[in-house]
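Please check what follows.
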Amino acid sequence: MNISIIIPLLNEQESLPELTSWISKVITANNFTYEVIFIDDGSTDNSWQTIQELSAENANIKGIRFLRNYGKSQALHAGFAKAEGNVIITMDADLQDSPDEIPGLYEMITKGNYDLVSGWKKKRYDSIVSKNLPSKLFNWAARRTSGVELNDFNCGLKAYKNIVIKNIEVSGEMHRYIPVLAKNAGFSKIGEKVVQHQARKYGESKFGMSRFINGFLDLITIWFLSKFGKRPMHLFGALGTIMFLIGFLSAGYIGVMKLIKLYFNLSTILVTDNPWFYIALTTMIIGTQLFLAGFLGEIILRTKNNEERYKISSEIN
């Protein structure tokens, strides 16, 4: 199979027939073998019924339905697990991603030998204040932190080799950082393609300003995980040891100075009246806690079990 198209959605009933027709037109014109996997992430409208109807008309249309809303990352994870195509393309269901970009993305993967190609919506039709400016700031921070030189991490239109999506773990809200996850997994040939952005035709955006706040927090998380995710003791153990030694040496210095002053009958105060003693003591306690945090992190890494991340109520095809 040439292409698997994975489309997460939440309450996009109106756009699904038009999107499916558009995809079929593009695929037929290019003679691709394909599958379209819709992941209904807990929609409360008739999206699932629409997917059932579309699947009855076209056997290439498949569907996965979650019991409730789990988030885009979990939807992509479920789609990646089911995808069988040599090239996997992800896109949003709101018609803001153009299916006309599919052949170009496919060619970059197959002929350009890219591991991953990310879309870049260079010209956008979103609000400048609420989306465009925060997005530019977010993308700048993501480039500086991750080292992946992409202009649009948030673009849902991306293409991957099958081996890439089978070897990365998308969890939490990390769907924005799939290129970073791919790079950390060893897939270094990451490209970018300018794609057409279309104004939303139906409904309203499901994402607000909070996604940028969450995005920056996730960026910190992914930076930490990429550096110390497999060896937390290297960070927490080192910091804990340094802080403990600073506190211990400071407390020792305070004690030695107290004994020297007593020996030479110099005026002095009780150790417990010296504020620096409590600072040194606090530093040792924090250092011990950091060391234990690293130690517990290592134990958790070696004993954790894979837990169920979402529940599927039904599937089509």
In short: The first strand starts at residue 3 and ends at 9. The first helix runs from residue 16 to 30. Strands lie at 3-9, 34-40, 61-66, 87-90, 116-120, 158-161, 190-194, 312-316.
